[in-house]
Amino acid sequence: MLNEIVEINRRHTSNGNVASYIPDLGKACKEDLGICIIDKDNKIYTAGEYDTKFTIQSVSKPIVLAMALMDNDWSHVFSKVGMEPSGDPFNSIMKLEMNDTKKPCNPMINAGAIVTTSLIKGDSVEEKEERMLNFFRKIAKNDKLSINYDVYNSEKRTGDRNRAMAYLLKNDGFIEGDVEEVLDLYFKQCSIEIDTVDLARIGTNLATYGVDIETGERVLSESVSRMVKTFMVTCGMYDASGEFAIRVGIPAKSGVGGGILASVPNRMGIGVYGPSLDKKGNSIAGLRVLEDLSRMLKLNIF
Ligand code: GLN
């Protein structure tokens, strides 16, 4: 069934484009489409280009949010970043000036994500980076996860819009410390290389409310996992989150690398890869794959 869903939807890849703001993302194969599902019994199902590596990009946002919530008092986190969907594109700067509080709307858009990155604890930049990478490795159950330095260098070189937002956030008191250090860590988190199996595993850990299905180890608290999934529902697909909730009805988070992380509470984690993106920056065929899957397996949580 998965093979069929992937092959039927592959044609939609021609209606989008791969991200091209940096050369490495532009090199992705537009026709690629892959999926991995890991269910609550730890059965793994794959189809298409499920093991192609790509950078996590914005799918890193819910994971760093989880870290920020575990490292800090929640009241502190939410004094720096809001809980409301923005309805604007992921890299929009507009509401930082327009909102009364100037606080970034939520942690799933760039402005809010840069704030959550700044909340990762550590005595030095190196320690923060190590803690972050280790947390990604743990939640994805993959010790080999690492940063793609070509992508990181390009993100850093071209990230002036994120830089502008970060300096504005610092000026308004939402970021403490050195802005360039925060941005450096943000560009690194976006450049972690993964595949759909890693994403499905992260989705499974969210689906079980934080308990590793193989070892029984708790990787996230129940309340943090609930909060992360809620943000994924309300803000995970940027300004397409409302339509996605209606059509698919599964907590999910997309990234411009073409990845989508999805988590069906108590049932399964899903990772999708399709680098051809629609105008809002979501995988154009990946959305269709999730829509079909949700209908066929009755995954809609609503
Ligand atoms: N690195 C990208 C950025 O910060 C990630 C955006 C995304 O995946 N939507 O703009």
What's the SSE blueprint?
Blueprint (H helix, E strand, L loop, with lengths): L1 H8 L13 H4 L7 E6 L4 E5 L5 E2 L4 H12 L2 H7 L13 H5 L11 H9 L6 H16 L5 E2 L1 H10 L1 H12 L7 H12 L1 E3 L1 H12 L14 H14 L5 H7 L4 E3 L4 E6 L3 E6 L10 H14 L5
Antiparallel strand pairs: 1-2, 1-8, 3-5, 4-5, 6-7, 7-8
The structure holds glutamine (GLN).
3D structure, described in words:
- Substrate binds at residues 58, 110, 155, 162, 186, 238, 256.
- It comes from Asaccharospora irregularis DSM 2635.
- It is a single chain.
- This protein is α+β, with helices and mostly antiparallel strands.
- The protein has two domains: 2-54 and 195-297, DD-peptidase/beta-lactamase superfamily (Beta-lactamase, 3-Layer(aba) Sandwich); 58-190, Beta-lactamase, CATH 3.40.710.
- It contains 14 helices and eight strands.
- The chain has helices at 2-9, 23-26, 60-71, 74-80, 94-98, 110-118, 125-140, 149-158, 160-171, 179-190, 196-207, 222-235, 241-247, 284-297, and strands at residues 34-39, 44-48, 54-55, 146-147, 192-194, 252-254, 259-264, 268-273.
- The strands form two sheets. It has a five-stranded antiparallel beta sheet. It has a three-stranded antiparallel beta sheet with strand order 3-5-4.
- Helix 3 packs parallel to helix 6, helix 7 (125-140) packs parallel to helix 10 and helix 12 packs across helix 13.
- The two termini are 23 Å apart.
- The model has no long low-confidence stretch (mean pLDDT 96).
- Bound molecules: glutamine.
- The site of glutamine (GLN) has 11 residues, from loops.
- Glutamine binds next to loops.
